[in-house]
Amino acid sequence: MQKLMVAAVGVFLGSVLLTAAQDQVQEIWEVPEEERAVENPIASDDDVLAEGQRLYERNCRMCHGETGLGDGPATARIKPAPRDITTADAQDRMTDGEMFYKITVGKRPMREFESRLTEDERWSVVHYLRTLRAG
Q: Do residues 26 and 36 both lie within one domain?
């Protein structure tokens, strides 16, 4: 009985450590350099920003939150939760091409949007994301 208990605790601790390790791995999202270098081919204007906002609210807000803080209502059910994309660090680090790539291909738990949004729509979302910069 004691051996069974020790084995059960070992399995439990192993699964906790594995989950923690997987969460650590998921936080690194490497984007190919050639994708990072892609420039937004769509000029930003009021119509593009309004379209980007509409698409963000319909497709991204549930996870990324109203203002991009990563605090949307769905974050209670997803791990890892989205990062705050409004910080100067995040906005300065990510190129438009990187944002576009991440929206396009997704990475678990974030779904891909290549099949749901047109290329121009995804670029509009990138323009809108730039308006969410904090401070």
A: no
Dist CA 119 CA 133 (whole Å): 23
Closest by CA to 130, choosing from 87, 71, 81, is: 87
Rounded to 5 degrees, what are φ and ψ at 13? -65, -40
- Is residue 35 within 8 Å of residue 105, measured between CB atoms? no
Do both 64 and 79 map to the same domain? yes
Same domain, 20 and 61: no
Q: 131 near 58, Cβ under 8 Å?
A: no
Q: Same domain for 86 and 64?
A: yes
Domain shared by 61 and 17, yes or no: no
79-95 pLDDT, tens digit each? 889 999 999 999 999 99
Distance from C-alpha of 88 to C-alpha of 50, rounded to nearest angstrom: 22
Q: Which domain holds residue 6?
A: 1-30
The pLDDT tens digits of the residues spanning 36-57 come to 999 999 999 999 999 999 999 9
pTM (2 d.p.): 0.79
